[in-house]
Each structure stands twice: as C-alpha cells, then as structure tokens.
Design brief:
By secondary structure, this protein is an alpha+beta fold. The chain is built from 4 helices and 10 strands, in the order ββββαββααββββα. The strands form 2 sheets. The chain has a 6-stranded antiparallel sheet. A hairpin with a 5-residue loop joins β5 and β6. The termini are close together.
Length: about 220
C-alpha cells in the first residue's frame, strides 16, 4: 500500500497503457514521467505554446548534443534550434530518438491488424484542440524505449531496461503543450509484450526524493 502524498498543486495523471494524454507546462516547471510497471516505452511530443510550429525535435537534439542519446544535464532542442527542456534526472539513461511513432499503417500493413491503437493517434487526440492537423504531430522522443544501434549502423528495437518506478525529470524552458502515449505495441518486442500504465506529473519546483517515491505509487 502506498502512503506517500503528492505535492500540492501538482498536475498528476496516470496514463492508461496503449492510450494517450495531453498536458501543458510553463517555463520553469518540471515534468516527471514514470514507468509504473517497468519495460514500458512512452512516446512524447511537445509544441511551443507561443508558436505551434516550433516543436520538440529529435533531429535538432541529436545535432546539438552530437549524439543519438541524451543524458542528465543535456537539453532537448526545438525545431527552431532553441533549448526546450533540460534533462534534470534520469534513472534509465536509455531512450530512443530514431524511431517514428507507430501509426495506423504500421499495424495494418506490417502486422495485418487494422484499427490497432497507435501512438500517432494517441498523441493527436489531445493535441488537436490546438488546431493542428494529425500530420503536424512531430516526431517523438520514445522515452525508455531501447533502440540499440550496432557498429555497422543497423537499428534494433528491444524491450526497455526500465523497471517499475524508473523515471525521467525534465525542466520546461518555454511554455509547452505535451502529449504522452504509453506505446500500445504488443506484437513485437518493445514493451515486454505487455502494455502498461505510465504517470506524468507537472510541478512548480524540482521534485524531492519524497515526491519521487510518491510518483512511483500505482
């Protein structure tokens, strides 16, 4: 049983596995994303509220950081080449910035499962209230997804190494609208073949050790 209390005033929601939720954060606020059960990848996108055409960009982040990976202290960069988030804490250290969001054609064409839930539509649903088209949903960061790249340049997707309660803390550096989709992939490795819930929490100050323990509660 969990007896921890969450910070007062925090925006806090458990996102059901295979579905999506949207939320906003102001510059200076902190976003904590928790893998509640372990081995769950979460697609994440963000748009600047000041200019919806400025979006979180894995491509610009890779170029700025000169790496396909990011680590604590790095910034995640926008399509306008501006820092959008700072990586404050990261208990996993392995995330993917190469693979696009799964979409309806991925399941219909590649797996023969039309109508399967997918990250693109999961993230579009909460973002469409800002007046964007589904084709304007940016390429995601796939938090906790394990996408190793071999020495010969080949990409793979295997199950995440995250365990129950692992988390990532980002500091927003501009006002943003975000969407998170605990990926519904249950056909090939990527989520341990079991789709589970994730939590996001938005706080005005950096979460304390007590807060982080509370965020892990299912």
């Amino acid at each position: 049983m969990c007896n921890h209390t969450h910070p007062a005033g925090a925006t806090n929601e458990v996102v059901p596995g295979g579905f999506g939720r949207g939320f906003e954060a102001k510059a200076g606020q902190y976003i904590t994303i928790v893998d509640l059960h372990g081995e769950q990848a979460g697609d994440f996108v963000a748009l600047s509220l000041a200019d919806l055409d400025e979006v979180l960009s894995p491509t610009h982040t890779r170029r700025t950081n000169r790496s396909i990976y990011f680590r604590k202290g790095d910034c995640l960069i926008s399509s306008e080449n501006r820092p959008m988030f700072e990586v404050v804490e990261d208990t996993v250290g392995i995330h993917d910035a190469n693979v696009p969001a799964c979409d309806p054609t991925r399941y219909a064409v590649d797996f023969g499962v039309p109508g399967h839930r997918n990250c693109l539509e999961n993230m579009y649903e909460p973002l469409k209230r800002y007046g964007i088209d589904i084709l304007q949903v940016p390429e995601p960061f796939n938090f906790f997804q394990n996408g190793p790249v071999s020495e010969d340049g080949k990409m793979g997707v295997t199950d995440p190494i995250s365990r129950a309660g692992d988390y990532l803390v980002l500091k927003a550096l501009m006002d943003v609208a975000c969407a998170l989709s605990p990926c519904p992939q249950d056909i090939i490795p990527g989520n341990g073949l079991v789709v589970t819930d994730m939590r996001y929490v938005v706080t005005d100050s950096a979460p304390t050790a007590h807060d982080l323990e509370a965020f892990k509660c299912r």
